[in-house]
Structure formats: structure tokens, C-alpha cells
């Protein structure tokens, strides 16, 4: 079983006869996210197959953690190209349909699902998004019907946040697409590989509470730590959260190996 980091919270997990993608977003159009002002809401959404196709050709599942612009925009193209089933909330799937994703590949989940496939399982958990000083950026839901086509990043609302646990053989991999979580939903899961995002400054006791709920994973791999206005084809540029996360993990979970995987690199848990 191998994980490959495709930048931001994009992961390709290969093994057990399957390929699973989490939040695949490779176009990385310029957003201004990591400037003091943050991303302007009127930045146009772009999805460019020329930046996606060299890296992604097959997948059985695409797991969406939330609806934001650095997670969702490339999913319609990748779903069409691979034929993968897309798991997400009602809002995520409605936004994806509005962006042209094939409706018959959409798989509505809400947290609590435990899917058995041939050789692996996928569990879905209710989660929650980080905030900036207690306020969610680009909040909202798009229930019931397909909205008009999203054009700018503010059109891609969060639409609930999900966490995923993938089990291939005897290896459990957990992913959070944002620096927040719901303790009671994940209590006792004991993943072997934890993909965790830095930040969480507005989340009470972020890292200690997470490890209190999850135990001490063998491997902790940072995700979503690169400035995605920088290219995927160069080494990742830390937006400033990596060393704080490393220190917090060392304190909360001293027996875990903190493994930094760079852009496009692979990691195989032993
Ligand atoms: Zn987000």
C-alpha cells in the first residue's frame, strides 16, 4: 500500500487492488490564500486538464472532505476521466454536478458509513472545519438542488466537512481535510497512518485532543501544509505551520514517526 502526495490535501492511495483519491486538486490556480489579506472571494475558478492528467489516470473512489476551492474544482474532470465514484455531502455533490460532474457517479454520504469493498473498507465520519478566530471562511450549504455553476471561489461553500478512514489489509489511514475534528466521532479509531493538517489555532487544544481521541499512530504525515500558489512541480513551500505541528505531535504522541512527504513523493508504511 502506497500513498502519494499531490499537494494540498490531495492524496493518491494505491493498494488492495484499488486506487483512492482524497480531495484531488492539481490545477492550483493563483488564489492569494497565504497573503495577509487571504484569498479575494472573486478569484475565478479554473480546472486545467493539462495540469491534472500527467498525474492522475485511474481511480475507483474520490473522497471529498469539503467544498472549498482548494479541494473541489478538479473533481468533475477527474471523475469523468477515471469513472471513479465520488463520495461527498449533499452540498459537495450538488456543487460538483453544477461544475459538470457525472451525476451517476455521485455517492451521497453524511458520516457514519462503513463501506465494505473487495479487499478494503472506507469509513466516513462527521467532521468540522477550522475557523479564523471562530468564523468559518466561505460557509454555507447548497441542499436540495443543483445551484448555478460556481464561477468564483466564494461560490464553493464548505457544505459540511467529512473525515475518512481507509483500511487496506491491516493498515488504517485517516485523513482530515481541515484543522478541526469532532472528538466523539473519531474516539478509539487507532489509525496507523494519520494525515493531519497544521494550523488549528482557533481549535481548542487541537493536536492534544486529536491524539487523545485517536491514540498514537505509527506514522503522522502532514497534509495541506504547502503554499498552493507555488507550483506542484517544485518542492513544497511551507506556509508556516509545519514546525509547530511537528513539535505538537512530538509532545502529544512521542512514539509516532513524523514523516514529511514532499510534492509528488510516495510513502509506503512498513
Ligand atoms: Zn477549507
From TrEMBL:
Domain Metallo-beta-lactamase as annotated: residue spans: 7-224
Short name of one Pfam family: Lactamase_B_3
Superkingdom to which the source organism belongs: Bacteria
UniProt protein name: MBL fold metallo-hydrolase
InterPro entries tied to this protein: Metallo-B-lactamas (IPR001279), RibonucZ/Hydroxyglut_hydro (IPR036866), UPF0173_UPF0282_UlaG_hydrolase (IPR050114)
Signal peptide: none
